[in-house]
């Protein structure tokens, strides 16, 4: 798991690994080239919806660009014959975190299971 210092560094790193110019990233993410430059220089921080577009263009999880978390699901994902992926997770939550998750689920009108699925999806692909 990599945890770089800033969103700017992670965008630069992923763009360089893919051999993309700022202009190419801008076109792929539908974000203005000047904004990509500002994000990479650290002058601006992208909003969640913009960061989601950049993550998609770079083909990396939203959580990596936003938080420096690169999940490894290689042993947890199973794809059925219809191409539907199932992710198995073992969560080790302390009591306080579990209670907060339950409270957030209630606020959103979700079951705890639905809320945790939503969190995982949000972390992988960002807001949609």
UniProtKB/TrEMBL annotation:
Q: Does the keyword Membrane apply?
A: no
Keywords for this protein = DNA-binding
Q: Name one Pfam family in it.
A: HTH_3
Q: Which segment of the chain is annotated as a signal peptide?
A: none
Against SMART domains, the record matches this protein to: HTH_XRE (SM00530)
- Residues annotated as domain HTH cro/C1-type: 11-65
Q: Name one GO molecular function term.
A: DNA binding
Protein name per the record: XRE family transcriptional regulator
Organism taxonomic ancestry? Bacteria, Pseudomonadati, Pseudomonadota, Gammaproteobacteria, Enterobacterales
């Amino acid at each position: 798991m990599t945890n770089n210092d800033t969103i700017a560094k992670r965008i630069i790193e992923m763009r360089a690994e893919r051999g993309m110019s700022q202009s190419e990233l801008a076109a792929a993410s539908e974000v203005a080239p000047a904004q990509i430059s500002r994000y990479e220089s650290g002058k601006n921080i992208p909003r969640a919806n913009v960061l989601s577009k950049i993550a998609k263009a770079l083909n990396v999880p939203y959580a990596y660009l936003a938080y420096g978390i690169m999940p490894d699901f290689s042993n947890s994902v199973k794809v059925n014959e219809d191409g539907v992926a199932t992710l198995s997770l073992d969560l080790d939550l302390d009591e306080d975190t579990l209670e907060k998750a339950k409270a957030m689920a209630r606020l959103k009108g979700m079951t705890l299971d639905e809320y945790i699925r939503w969190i995982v999806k949000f972390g992988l692909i960002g807001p949609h």
